[in-house]
């Protein structure tokens, strides 16, 4: 699934997706409320990985609004996305990411995972800052085997 995030202004951005089946959806969002959280879900669900988190559900037909999402994967991804969003806002260190993983999901906490999440978060934040108004960042959601 192609994910396109267009910087409309300091206050708003538009998320547009094109699913593998060709269906599309878009929504204009308040950047302060949603951008880091959407990035955090993408990071966590890619790096852990989580097949049917937010982005996996959207790829499968759920709405960008969250309607049609649910289940264990969403709940698991949410336990990490919220704290990752906060660490992104605080421009935390990789050690702080590891501390968060050890507190929230100790069964998956490793220095390697913390470093990957940290670097991915830094990369996305930097890419967003460098994106001019009216321009679009593109990501590819790689659907994972759910069996």
Strand-helix topology:
Blueprint: E1 2-7, E2 12-18, E3 24-30, H1 31-47, H2 54-59, H3 72-90, H4 94-104, H5 111-130, E4 136-140
Antiparallel strand pairs: 1-2, 1-4, 2-3
Helix pairs in contact: 1-3, 1-5, 3-4, 4-5
> Looking across the biggest beta sheet, what order are the strands in?
3-2-1-4
Mean pLDDT: 96
- How would you classify the helix and strand content by structural class? alpha+beta
Topology as a string of helices (H) and strands (E): EEEHHHHHE
Shape: globular
Largest sheet: 4 strands, antiparallel
By DSSP (H or I, 4+ residues per run), the number of helices equals 5
- Based on DSSP secondary structure assignment, what is the total number of beta strands? 4
Radius of gyration, rounded?
15 Å
Unreliable stretches (pLDDT < 50, length at least 5) are none
Q: How far apart lie the N and C ends?
A: 19 Å
The percentage helix is: 40-55%
What does this structure look like?
With 147 residues, the chain is an alpha+beta fold. The chain has a domain at 33-130. It contains 5 helices and 4 strands; from the N terminus they run E-E-E-H-H-H-H-H-E. The chain has helices spanning 31-47, 54-59, 72-90, 94-104, 111-130; strands at residues 2-7, 12-18, 24-30, 136-140. The protein has a 4-stranded antiparallel beta sheet. Helix 1 (31-47) crosses helix 3. 29% of the residues are buried.
């Amino acid at each position: 699934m192609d994910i396109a995030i267009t910087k409309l202004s300091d206050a708003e951005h538009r998320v547009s997706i094109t699913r593998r089946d060709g269906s599309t959806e878009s929504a204009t969002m308040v950047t302060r409320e949603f951008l880091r959280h959407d990035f955090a879900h993408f990071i966590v669900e890619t790096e852990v990985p989580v097949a049917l988190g937010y982005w996996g559900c959207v790829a499968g037909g759920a709405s960008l609004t969250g309607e049609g999402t649910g289940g264990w994967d969403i709940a698991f991804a949410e336990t990490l996305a919220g704290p990752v969003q906060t660490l992104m806002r605080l421009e935390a260190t990789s050690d702080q990411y590891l501390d968060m993983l050890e507190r929230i999901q100790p069964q998956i906490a490793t220095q390697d995972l913390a470093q990957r999440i940290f670097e991915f978060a830094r990369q996305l934040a930097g890419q967003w800052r460098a994106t001019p108004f009216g321009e679009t960042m593109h990501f590819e959601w790689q659907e994972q085997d759910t069996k």
